[in-house]
């Protein structure tokens, strides 16, 4: 699993950061998503999928399979 973010689509809601702080952060200046880890562990994968499918309001996060 690889995580990709599109900062141009991000609206800075911060829901990804609250749901998976080891994977996502927010920029201090603009509040937009920052990807901290593009390869979540097996333990982090379900939460990451949930964020992509249900939580990110702007659909700025996507997953590809390795």
Could you tell me the number of beta strands? 4
Arithmetic mean of pLDDT: 96
Give unreliable regions as ranges: none
For the largest beta-sheet, the strand count, sense and barrel status come to: 2 strands, antiparallel
Helix content: 10-25%
Describe the structure.
The chain has 66 residues and is α+β, with helices and mostly antiparallel strands. Helix content is 24%, strand content 21%. It contains 2 helices and 4 strands; from the N terminus they run βαββαβ. The strands form 2 sheets. It has a two-stranded antiparallel sheet. It has a two-stranded antiparallel sheet with strand order 2-3. Strand 2 (24-26) and strand 3 form a beta hairpin. The protein is globular, with a radius of gyration of 11 Å. The protein starts with a strand and ends with a strand.
Q: Which features characterize this protein?
A:
two-stranded antiparallel ribbon; 66 residues; alpha+beta; two-stranded antiparallel sheet
């Amino acid at each position: 699993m690889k995580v990709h973010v599109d900062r141009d689509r991000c609206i800075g809601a911060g829901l990804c950061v609250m749901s998976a702080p080891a994977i996502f952060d927010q920029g201090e200046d603009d509040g937009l998503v920052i990807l901290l880890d593009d390869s979540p562990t097996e333990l982090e994968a379900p939460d990451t999928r949930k964020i992509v499918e249900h939580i990110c309001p702007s659909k700025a996060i996507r997953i590809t399979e390795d």
